[in-house]
Amino acid sequence: MTRPPPRGRKARASQGTPAASPAYVTRSLPYYAMLDDEALARIEAQSCRLLERVGIEFRDDPDALRRWRVAGAEVTGTRVRVAPELVKSLLATAPEEFTQVARNPARSVRIGGQHQVFAPVYGSPFVRDLEGGRRYGTLEDFHRLVKLTHQLTPLHHSGFVTCEPCDVPVSKRHLDMLLAHMTLTDKPHLGAITEKSRAEDSVAMARLLHGPEVFDQHCVIMANVNTNSPLLVDKVVTEAAAVYCGAGQGLIAVPFILSGAMGPVTTAAAIAQALAEAMIVGAYTQLVRPGAPFILGNFLSSMNLRSGAPTFGMPEPLLSNLVIGQLARRLRLPLRCGGALTASKLPDYQAAAESADSMLSTILGGANYVLHAAGWLEGGLATGYEKLVLDADRLGAYEVVLRGFATDDDALGVDAYGDVEPGGHFLGSAHTLSHYTTAFYEAQLSDSNSVEQWEEQGAKDAARRALDRWKCLLNEYEAPPLDPARREALLDYVARRKADLPDAWY
Amino acid sequence: MTRPPPRGRKARASQGTPAASPAYVTRSLPYYAMLDDEALARIEAQSCRLLERVGIEFRDDPDALRRWRVAGAEVTGTRVRVAPELVKSLLATAPEEFTQVARNPARSVRIGGQHQVFAPVYGSPFVRDLEGGRRYGTLEDFHRLVKLTHQLTPLHHSGFVTCEPCDVPVSKRHLDMLLAHMTLTDKPHLGAITEKSRAEDSVAMARLLHGPEVFDQHCVIMANVNTNSPLLVDKVVTEAAAVYCGAGQGLIAVPFILSGAMGPVTTAAAIAQALAEAMIVGAYTQLVRPGAPFILGNFLSSMNLRSGAPTFGMPEPLLSNLVIGQLARRLRLPLRCGGALTASKLPDYQAAAESADSMLSTILGGANYVLHAAGWLEGGLATGYEKLVLDADRLGAYEVVLRGFATDDDALGVDAYGDVEPGGHFLGSAHTLSHYTTAFYEAQLSDSNSVEQWEEQGAKDAARRALDRWKCLLNEYEAPPLDPARREALLDYVARRKADLPDAWY
Predict the structure, then answer these.
(1) What is the ipTM score, two decimals?
(2) Which chain B residue shows the shortest CA-CA distance from A128?
(3) Quick check: B43 and A264 CB within 8 A?
(4) What integer is the mean pLDDT of B402-410?
């Protein structure tokens, strides 16, 4: 048997370095066509009925109502009813795909079309690791998670609130998070939205980081906002649209619907409502600035009928992942949906099964920007260190899936049987030798050794191996270079703003 | 908030009783169309080249060579070269779908077409559970695994070697296994193949169990055989075809190809070889008896390039699962492929991620009969008790996925917004109340409780909860009724054969 030459620790470690990393994935794999055109049109018709007849509430932002009135919508109090044709004509000015420019151009990501971008979990107040257990996230945790995201090549995007740094006052937290994303990694990231001034800080710091020329001509930062389902858009959304899109930057609008609570309990109805909500916000971004980058978002979850608790990775949201991509493509809009979601508290069988079914349906359905693609635990309440590296390892496998495989004569092995007889083997054959280095995905955290070898190495389960891996990665972390003047400008900005802002914990 | 009425332990336990169980799944979900017709035709053309030019070795069975010569194949020594047209015309007499009749007619399964049947792991010499660790399987283990399979409703079929009962002599083992499948469950099952006489015992006992009338007119037992890849068919296969198909019973032929060893290292080439091997065995079953039920099988695995060890749940076999269904449907043959496969030693994150990606691609691709759908660990070397019940819980979720969802006006919630305002909630709405009992899959082993509740209940991970569940199921097990005369006839047969056979351990 001729074994391929062994690759040692050095080759393995290099998966964490920027040079080896593709900035994003461009798929060859076809999309999964779950529903036919007639069924898709029925869902769209229901979305249109909601927009036109029930209407959407736009609260606490007179500017938003004014914009809709000027555009020709029917505005009654805070209720906005819009003709579907108007919504669609507004959405038509949003780009079908666009580039979010990273401060390292090699890290810029293409969003939309055949492209897929993976980002880590967003918004968890807690963190969990095998040694430290579950605890509130701190700024130290946040820094470590940004560093790990930087090192994990299947994560193309740094996200934003990888955990809440709960030891920093809420009023100042966004500044520390922005500074970390801008200095500890050169991958692209999102900005803050919780208050208008925080959105403005995000955009201002992005301008400092990228310089006014790049900033004015490119999307360099995006914000992720949630509608208040059902059918309510509050000022967090409209102000974020005004600040980010007003500056030519991107917005992701995501209805977060627990079916049976914030939307109807049936999957088709929840999808139709989510589509209506995302469409109206998308249309609004184009009222603010035609051509502003917009990502149509979707986040459906199901419910445990005994307790009312949200569940994740279950079949109903999995089916919605397969359909929402079809709907987004009919609108020619980039899509955010899915992620490696689970209700599990630990990186165990439950976490992996739910995350895998959620993620595989996400990529087959054709999500372009996937937040929560790694690290999510406990319904999003906790970021798992081990879960982050385990999920990233599977994201690498999904990249291979997205590339599909060739069926030309060489890939078909038309000449592979010259030196192999029936009953023989291909281990040293010419065809094998010419393909083996690229033939298989090399998982970092899957153990395929014999049980004896595995026992000799400590009989570690996947979570325990993941603990070893993230500690090793953090030891190897090196900050990407950053122009000292820009770093100084960012530090100044943060110091100045912190001096202005009171410590507030809400 | 109006909560759905709680369902207690009784409702939960009842999922294990036969009455609640659908005998198999009929899908509404479309198949995933991974390759276009041109690419599929290229793969088929390569399979045809292998059949016609390289040929297939048929060893140690002069009857097989004689049958091929009579049919018009070119036979040189033990090498059989067959015109693709002949292979395809033979395959055309195999049924596109058929029923395997169970001794309880409510358990009969439909195999082929839109139908999906799930069966447990097959062939593991070892078993593992959280308390007992890893050890050789025994007849007691085997009995417990057959009982659990009987109780787990998402498993429609009892399989055969759920673990090897290593404490029984090899020469007699098949008799004890057959007796267990025939008495401890009323689900359909497979028979033995390792020697011709064992295949004959299987068929003879099936005839006793079902009675000659049912036996002669229906498929009541099937056998699963592997080709000796590459391109070699030994007498285990041809004798099993003679015994099973000769009696009108079913055969599943599965090339087991570790890409780069028993087949070319590229995915397309391995698929083409597997297709050629399965096609030739299928054609052979129709030489034995036109119309005999035949399932085209596929089992590709990838390799760890550092060690040469097989890996499972990796992207390359996942892609093959998506394609092989397309190829089987072009031949109008039922398909076996995939399963909940993993190289992991434990029911951990690795096991679940690999199993989920493997199974979801299996069902999207359209496998009709899925062996190894639950319980597989360690590359098939060990059957996991916890893994069995965990995988079965996810199979229940896949059943929901396979059903898809409705998009009629009621499912779209056209009237759902009458009693819900924007910003309100659907928790007690008429639409929710009329749908909630069927809205969501109810997982048995996924914990969606708050972290506080979960800690109060012992902070158990999924594997630990699975240990509780299989023990509870075994406590609740009740044997399905069996006609005493038939039971007596089976016991007599086994006693007589055991008296005739020497104790042999090979």
Answers:
(1) 0.95
(2) B451
(3) no
(4) 96
